[in-house]
Design brief:
Blueprint: E1 3-4, E2 10-14, E3 17-20, H1 21-42, H2 51-77, H3 79-84, H4 99-116, H5 121-128, H6 132-145, E4 164-165, H7 179-187, H8 199-218, H9 227-243, H10 263-281
Parallel strand pairs: 1-4
Antiparallel strand pairs: 2-3
Helix pairs in contact: 1-2, 1-6, 2-4, 6-8, 8-9, 9-10
Length: 293
């Protein structure tokens, strides 16, 4: 039987201040990344860098995620709306962040920080790669709690009779109903045909949990330069490409080609190719040895 999604996206209300689960999930992802990064720094996995240097790296990376993610969303997904309303770029509370834009923002921050600390760019990227999946996983859980970025309908497929009913994805008159009325319709089975794939949870499992476990294991011992970055790019690109088959495309874009190609797949294909290239290129690259003191 499908599940009716009626989770309050607001975790805590303190007068006019409302703390959303989405923000808390990102904070939790950052805390995990900070914890893992400090362990790796103290194990000498980024020679010459102490806790203060790592703190700077995390700060600049956070700025890269926010600025790059917002700008990337506008450029890749909603440029026409931005041209009509340029102030939408600052209304981040309305949603609209792009992983691929955030990735470019982080890479720009890492490049600047690496040059300042006289480190090879890819040595820093290899160090940072295992820290990212925690944020991806918790971020997707935040998407699910917020009832956004849902998947395609399961009705008429092999998944018929299973899925999640997202109130914000329902047509009228259901979309305007209060929670109690909507639940009564759900309990009578009237909403079963609107069940959708919880693609946010698929991504949380693959891009979060699976990638975290693989990358932590893969980077547990020193690897040649480019190897960890290549593994990250290959895994993320492949997982995102696959999940896009059951994820609803952005309404303003729809499918870009052949009735199934999405913007997420277009942006993920270069990551798959880069991941394969970096893994191949790493075979002849030097290995950064830990600075254990």
């Amino acid at each position: 039987m499908p599940y009716l999604h009626q989770i309050d996206p607001i975790a805590v209300s303190l007068g006019p201040l409302k703390v959303h689960w989405y923000g808390l999930m990102y904070l939790l992802g950052f805390v995990v990344a900070w914890w893992l990064g400090r362990r790796r720094v103290r194990a000498g996995r980024l020679p010459g860098v102490d806790d203060n240097g790592f703190g700077d790296l995390m700060f600049y990376s956070m700025l890269g995620v926010v600025l790059g993610g917002r700008i990337g969303y506008i450029v890749f997904y909603d440029l026409s709306e931005f041209l009509k309303d340029p102030l939408m770029i600052v209304r981040v509370w309305q949603g609209g962040m792009s992983f691929h834009g955030g990735l470019l923002g982080v890479l720009a921050a890492v490049a600047w920080w690496s040059r300042k600390h006289h480190l090879h760019f890819f040595d820093t990227v290899d160090f940072m790669a295992p820290l990212v999946p925690a944020g991806l996983g918790f971020g997707r859980i935040g998407n699910y709690i917020g009832g956004e970025l849902w998947g395609k309908p399961t009705a008429g497929t092999v998944f018929d009779g299973w899925g999640v009913i997202f109130p914000r994805a329902l047509p009228e008159p259901f979309a305007s109903m209060d929670a109690a009325t909507l639940r009564s319709y759900f309990e009578n089975g009237a909403l079963n045909s609107f069940a959708r794939h919880p693609s946010q949870l698929y991504q949380a499992a693959l891009e979060g949990l699976v990638m975290f476990c693989v990358l932590v294991w893969f980077s547990a011992k020193p690897r040649p330069r480019y190897a960890v970055s290549g593994m990250f790019a290959l895994l993320y690109g492949s997982f995102r490409f696959l999940v896009e088959f059951v994820r609803e495309p952005d309404a303003q874009l729809g499918y870009l080609a052949f009735g199934w190609v999405t913007m997420g797949q277009v942006l993920s294909t270069p990551l798959i190719l880069l991941g394969l290239f970096w893994l191949w290129h790493s075979r002849r690259a030097p290995t950064l040895q830990p600075d254990v003191r």
